[in-house]
Amino acid sequence: MSILIDFERDTEFSFERRLRSYVGAVARAVGVGFESCTLDTGTPAAAYIALDWRLSRFPGHDLALVWDEVHGWAAAIEDATGATVLTHLGGEVFPEPRAVVRFLAAVRAHDPDAGTLEAPVLREAGDHERLLAQVPEATPAGRG
């Protein structure tokens, strides 16, 4: 086995661990547990956080936060056919959890300036070694 293959495995393992930690910090910050989250560390990497809220303008749809490595965080509604993005946070691929909380609060308050309808392109998908360097280090519980 080559050194390159071992390095790629280590990068993907480290990337998955750090992404799991980051998504967990965002989930805690918005008031849900990691059991409400799913991760896909393929290309593009993506995450999903199911929320315990519904928006009054979409009473029959569950609210969720979705993330991918190209567009960052977005608020979405769900029904039997899947998720529909309402608005994107934009700015950074990995904003601080507090920024995601503020974004979600604005979405829930029906703030017309909560994010953007057009999906921002924050980076190109792939190159998890480079993306790993951008994922924030884990923060102690209660500080995310």
Radius of gyration: 16 Å
The side-by-side strand order for the widest beta sheet comes to 1-2-3-4-5
Low-confidence stretches: 1-7, 140-144
Number of helices: 3
Report on the structure:
Residues 1-7 and 140-144 have low confidence and may be disordered. The protein is globular and about 45 Å long. α1 (3-30) packs across α2 (97-108). It has 3 helices and 5 strands, in the order αβββββαα. It has helices at 3-30, 97-108, 128-132, and strands at 37-40, 46-50, 62-68, 72-79, 82-88. With 144 residues, the chain is an alpha+beta fold. β3 and β4 (72-79) form a beta hairpin. The N and C termini lie far apart (39 Å).
List the helices and strands and how they pair.
Blueprint: H1 3-30, E1 37-40, E2 46-50, E3 62-68, E4 72-79, E5 82-88, H2 97-108, H3 128-132
Antiparallel strand pairs: 1-2, 2-3, 3-4, 4-5
